[in-house]
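Operator note (shift B, R.M.): manual run for Alpha amylase, catalytic domain protein requested after the automated queue skipped it. Running by hand, logging everything below so the morning shift can see what happened. Input copied straight from the record, untouched. If output looks odd, do not overwrite the archive copy; leave it for review.
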Amino acid sequence: MSLLSSFLLLSHLAATLRPDQDPPMTLTSSCFQGLASRTDTDAWWRDAVIYQIYPRSFADANGDGIGDIQGIREHVDYLAALGVDAVWLSPFYPSPQVDAGYDVSDYFSLDPEYGTLAELDALISDLHDVGIRVVIDLVPNHSSDQHEWFRAALEAGPGSPERDRYIFRHSADGAPNNWGSLFGGPAWQPVEPLTGRSQDQDWYYLHLFAAEQPDFNWSNEDVHEHFRTFLRFWVERGIDGFRVDVAHGLVKAEGLPDDDLGPDRWNVVAAEGEDAAAARDKLPDVGPAFNQPGVHDIYREWRSVLNEVGTDILLVAEAWVPTEADAALYVRADEMSQAFNFPFLGAGWDAAELRRVIDVSLSEYGAVGAPATWVLSNHDVVRHASRLAYPAEMDTDPGIGPKDPPARRRARPGPGSRRHPVHAGPARQRLPLPR
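Run finished. Output pasted below as returned.
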């Protein structure tokens, strides 16, 4: 993915795409009014080009069919020649690979298939030597069910401190609420079939994604300390920033109330002549499982930690929220640095539509002194080089992200598919990412 935060590039893009008869784009004071309250006005990430690398498919140095850290090291000159300012490394942690590495079983190590921590340290050093910073994925909404904490939780039983690190609930009437998983089906997994113990009858745990990805309980202090330690650990190894996965999903609504749209929230039926993405875009919110006010307290905590251990450490939010104004709340001075601009990613290659998204983005992000970002593609959508070349009538919008959960489910790597491309219907590919 190229995440473009360059104002000069934006200006060139807007000027190139709008019709000649349009008046020149002007930047109002609202685009900059929030800068006065910020101390990061000269931070490197404000005008950086960031290039996503999916380690599993980028480059294979040892010939085993799986990309690795050494393969990336062998292409540092290539990355430097591209002129990128930073690379974003998708998850390289130990993982069962149920969800392309976003099911993490150890947050402080490297999957042996990719190499060693020493090799990762060498890669970070190599990249820094050519002026390229390193951003890594942070996955705080859920872990793998193979994480030592979750295994301990199943072993410890109901009411234990170990289970309090995740969201376990007792319900004698079926699932504790009607939430659906973004990967399909209910968001609650019965515990008794996993443990075989009668004491776990009518107990469930929450998973907003795969059943193998249990959600953390962010009301638990152990969870907070775990991720504070994570931030310190990786910054001390030379990491320059973090892309926060599902940044809008950590805190759930108090009491876990039913979703007024039920389990089919992520499969909204479109009206005749309307595509599903457009139908979902009209939803007034993202439900009780996402975008709760409490997430902002977490990011203020993280910003405080990062200010103690480093300078200008990037935090970028993957926050699928209804509007640019909602996203701007994540990038206030004491929280995140940037948020992925998904409205820009989803905009058609049309001058008027792009101009509207750009204008709104500059205004909303500028109000809090944050830069807008210009996201062209990532691992959840069709690559922009392909997407923008397709005929308009082809079904390529928005790719296979949260707006298209059926395709995302079809694209999930399963047993036997870990080393092979996974397709999600015509012209839709999730893995691998070509370099």
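Quick read of the result: Residues 1-32, 398-435 have pLDDT under 50 and may be disordered. Residues 50-143+219-388 form a domain with the TIM Barrel fold (CATH 3.20.20.80).
Leaving this for review. - R.M.
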